[in-house]
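STRUCTURE:
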């Protein structure tokens, strides 16, 4: 249920309300978010959505801080090494997140592992956000979210590159539609020519609907030279490189770009050259702050669009390829 706004809240969120409307801001203000994975990407997402004014965020991470975490996780310092990521130090992280929003978005810290949670745990949230989770966990949590009609987003950063995938189920949203450029104003319906010109620039709020695919279905697409280009447009090589990476995780094998790996993953060599895959594997390492900031900005934007019901969401994959500095929005489905 949308919450009532105080005068102080209306003043604080004035720019946002002008941008996407009071109703969208109210829906955002009632959103309960789970964020699992406090990596550099995770804290970028947390910072951005808390700034926007959600109702609550639960930070879930049972990992211990390592040197690699310090490359992009700006809420951690050397004093955090060896301590739990979500607890290190717990009160300082909560205060830093809360200072982003004067109205005290509720911040809950959960130090358990994501894999230990029962399916029913996810039913208390409006949207579940995973960061840095292994493939099997992403699939199982996505399936659990579908069981309870909870929206789902997952993403990771691998050195120079990153991705996000989202499953918003059956999603309704509002988008402002501007009069078509070639559609002339009808002066006869207005008192003056200026009013006609003003009317030509008017926007109307229109309702739209998007259907999303679960991750398990997106990964079950049978790729071949004949259908690859038709099933994913545009067809960035990074998506297929991710499929190869996840295949190495399934088989528990080393990161080596080979024809056998492509064959086992069902990836045609025509869409994923071995030299590109080799370069991608070599670039995988600790998160880099600039990449986390870029992917985190898009990730947070999609979270806010999902909970506010305002503007068209990405359906269903975003990829950032650090080798060429480009971002790609594409759809992967059966």
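SEQUENCE:
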């Amino acid at each position: 249920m949308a919450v009532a706004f105080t005068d102080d809240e209306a003043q604080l969120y004035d720019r946002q309300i002008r941008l996407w409307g009071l109703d969208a801001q109210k829906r955002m203000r009632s959103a309960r978010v789970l964020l699992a994975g406090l990596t550099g990407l995770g804290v970028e997402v947390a910072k951005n959505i808390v700034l926007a004014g959600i109702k609550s965020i639960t930070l879930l991470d049972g990992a211990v801080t390592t040197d690699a975490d310090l490359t992009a996780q700006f809420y951690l310092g050397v004093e955090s090494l060896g301590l739990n990521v979500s607890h290190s130090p717990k009160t300082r992280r909560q205060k830093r997140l809360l200072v982003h929003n004067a109205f005290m978005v509720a911040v809950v810290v959960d130090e358990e592992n994501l894999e230990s949670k029962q399916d029913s745990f996810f039913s208390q949230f409006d949207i579940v956000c995973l960061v840095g989770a292994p493939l099997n966990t992403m699939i199982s949590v996505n399936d659990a979210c579908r069981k309870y009609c909870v929206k789902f987003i997952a993403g990771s950063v691998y050195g120079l590159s990153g991705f996000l995938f989202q499953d918003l189920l059956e999603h309704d949203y509002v988008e402002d539609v501007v009069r078509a450029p070639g559609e002339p104003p009808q002066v006869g319906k207005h008192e003056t020519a200026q009013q006609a010109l003003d009317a030509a620039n008017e926007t109307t709020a229109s309702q739209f609907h998007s259907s999303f695919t679960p991750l398990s279905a997106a990964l079950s697409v049978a790729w071949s030279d004949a259908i690859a280009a038709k099933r994913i447009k545009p067809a960035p090589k990074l998506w297929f490189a991710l499929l190869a990476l996840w295949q190495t995780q399934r088989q528990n094998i080393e990161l080596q770009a080979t024809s056998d790996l492509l064959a086992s993953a069902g990836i045609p060599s025509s869409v994923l050259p071995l030299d590109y895959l080799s370069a991608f594997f070599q670039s995988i390492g600790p998160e880099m702050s600039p990449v986390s900031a870029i992917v985190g900005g898009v990730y947070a934007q999609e979270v806010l669009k999902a909970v506010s019901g305002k503007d068209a969401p990405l359906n269903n994959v975003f990829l950032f390829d650090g080798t060429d500095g480009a971002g790609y929005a594409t759809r992967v489905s059966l």
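REMARK: The CA atoms of residues 142 and 327 lie 24 Å apart.
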